[in-house]
Every structure is written in structure tokens, then in C-alpha cells.
Design goal:
Strand content: under 5%
Number of helices: 3
Oligomer: single chain
Low-confidence stretches: none
Radius of gyration: 15 Å
Order of helices and strands: HHH
Helix content: 55-70%
Distance between the termini: 17 Å
Structural class: mainly alpha
């Protein structure tokens, strides 16, 4: 199966990282457990970051990340 990547210029994966991603994808394909929606994950991350008093710039990055991945659902 050809797998999509979000960034073609991303650094290469190690063998261990590739194996972990393959294992997770295979588990999904077997069980069809979708996990959480991107918006829910971002909301949780924002809440955690806010509690740590991270700057607003981090939220801007999360918003860009959300936009990039929301189209791939």
C-alpha cells in the first residue's frame, strides 16, 4: 500500500520509527479503531500548553498543524 506523507521534505525515518508506524497502521486496518479527531487532539494540546503558560505562538503552530491534517481525515 502506498502511504501518504504530510511533508515530502521531512527527515528520513529510522527503521524503528518505520516499524512502529507500520505496526500502528496495521492495527488500525485490522481493528478499524479510528482514534480521536484532530480537533479533539488539538483542543487537548492547547489546554495542556495553556496550563503550562506557553506563548500564543505555540497555538499558531497548532492551528497550522490542524489545517494541514484536517484535510487528510
Amino acid at each position: 500500500m502506498q502511504r501518504k506523507t504530510c511533508q515530502q521534505d521531512a527527515p528520513p525515518l529510522t527503521d524503528e520509527q518505520r516499524a512502529e508506524l507500520d505496526q500502528r497502521l496495521n492495527a488500525y486496518e485490522k481493528d478499524k479503531i479510528k482514534g480521536r479527531e484532530v480537533s479533539e487532539v488539538v483542543k487537548t494540546l492547547k489546554e495542556r500548553l495553556w496550563s503550562l503558560s506557553r506563548p500564543a505562538r505555540t497555538f499558531e503552530r497548532l492551528d497550522r498543524w490542524t489545517e494541514a491534517f484536517s484535510g487528510q481525515q
